[in-house]
Amino acid sequence: MTPILDVSDLTCQFAGVTAVDDLSFTVDRGQIKAVIGPNGAGKSTLFNMIAGVTRPTTGTISFDGSRIDALPTFRRARLGIARTFQNLQVFQEMTVLENVMVGAHTTGRAGTMSAIFATLRQQAEERDLTETAHALLTRFGLADKAQLKAGALSFGQMKVLELARALASDPSLLLLDEPAAGLPHGEADRMGEIIVDLNRNGMTVLLVEHNMRMVMSLSHDILVLNNGRRIAEGDADTVRQHPEVLAAYLGESEDA
Ligand code: ADP
Ligand code: MG
User: Fold this and answer.
1) pLDDT of residue 127
2) What is the pLDDT of residues 62-100, one digit of tens each?
3) 120 and 104 in one domain?
4) Could you say which ligand is closest to the alpha carbon of residue 45?
5) What torsion, rounded to 10 degrees, do the Cα atoms 124, 126, 132, 135 define?
6) Domain range for residue 140?
């Protein structure tokens, strides 16, 4: 079976820095795959290349068997790739509901229709989007907050809101950059439960996370990066005992 994501010989150089260095790996449909590694390992750069924010210097990225590495971000989103950000990106002045609907707009098709027909079509889509957004908020326990400004939410609720927004585009691959970062234990565990639940319902997840308890408990497969290169790959037990992984994490006690 074709992997949903196929990264091949991927390199990203910034002035003088090789952030990702000749990296190859695949993600199978239905997997939760984690990417871990010390700060500066290249995890966010990898996500940015998959989402289309950063162009690879060399190498290829295929999604569902087709090259996507030259496509703009919105085309990749339409193909089914959604993401959340390491640094929370919530529109504080918009309502909670509107924040989710922003994510859903990538699936809208109205732009291709003639002007008058498009307006009718847009109105229908708008209703659909509102329903989808409400359903997501209900699912994540935020329905009663729908009309509040997003800035009024707690940090943990904003992290969940960002996830709801990513899901609003009905993706088949979800890229999560540190979904538990900054969350207290209980909320981090809840985030883990949400991810597991999404995956049980068919979502493929690529997860960057420093919370090792979360990574080890929910990942089917773990890729360990250091200095942009793969140093280990496998299940939790394999990775945990790998000498290079232990060495890479020495001195990063907060992550151990
Ligand atoms: P991680 O997410 O694993 O902490 P990053 O992908 O953010 O790592 O960074 C990998 C390396 O690339 C680091 O050395 C970082 O300083 C560098 N880097 C990341 N983004 C840029 C950029 N836009 N310009 C220059 N260097 C960058
Ligand atoms: Mg990062």
Assistant:
1) 81
2) 999 999 999 999 999 999 999 998 888 899 999 999 999
3) yes
4) 1
5) -110
6) 93-169
What are the structure tokens assigned to 6, written together?
Answer: 């196929």
Contact 63, 5 (CB under 8 A): yes
Does residue 87 lie within any of the structural domains? no
Atom of ligand 1 nearest to the CA of 41: 3
| Assigned domain for 85 exists | no
Decide: 48 in ligand 1 pocket, CB within 6 A: no
User: Which of 153, 169, 185 is where one domain is finished?
Assistant: 169
Q: Confirm if 97 and 126 have CB atoms less than 8 A apart.
A: no
Question: In this structure, what token pair is assigned to residue 20?
Answer: 């990702």
Residue with CA at minimum distance from ligand 1 atom 20: 45
Total domains in the fold of the chain: 2
Q: Is the CB of 209 under 6 A from ligand 1?
A: no
Q: Is the CB of 40 under 6 A from ligand 1?
A: yes
226 lines ligand 1 (CB under 6 A): no
Nearest CA to ligand 1 atom 23: 14
**Does residue 108 lie within any of the structural domains?**
yes
| Residue 184 and residue 194 in one domain | yes
- The CA distance from 2 to 29, in Å, is 8
Ligand 1 geometric centre to CA of 62 (Å)? 22
